[in-house]
Design brief:
With about 70 residues, the protein is an all-beta fold. It has one domain. The chain has no helices and five strands. The chain is globular and about 40 Å long. The N and C termini lie far apart (about 25 Å).
Length: about 70
């Protein structure tokens, strides 16, 4: 089952995804993002050392390193 978060502001459900992207210098980096639908790269759990926060203005979930 995919990891999901419900927005407190809009009530919309978002699913956590991961993808490896290539940066300009050729270095590859893993990114995390939320989407409204389950697509390729959906994750089952939060990565270790991260937590979910919500943007107060837009209500969109974001992933950040745990404090």
């Amino acid at each position: 089952m995919a990891f999901s978060v419900q927005s407190k502001k809009s009530g919309q459900t978002y699913y956590l995804h991961s993808r490896v992207v290539t940066l300009r210098g050729g270095r590859q980096q893993k990114i995390f993002f939320f989407a409204r639908e389950e697509k390729d790269g959906v994750l089952d759990a939060l990565p270790d050392g991260y937590e979910v926060m919500e943007n107060d203005r837009t209500g969109l979930p974001m992933l950040r390193k745990a404090k």
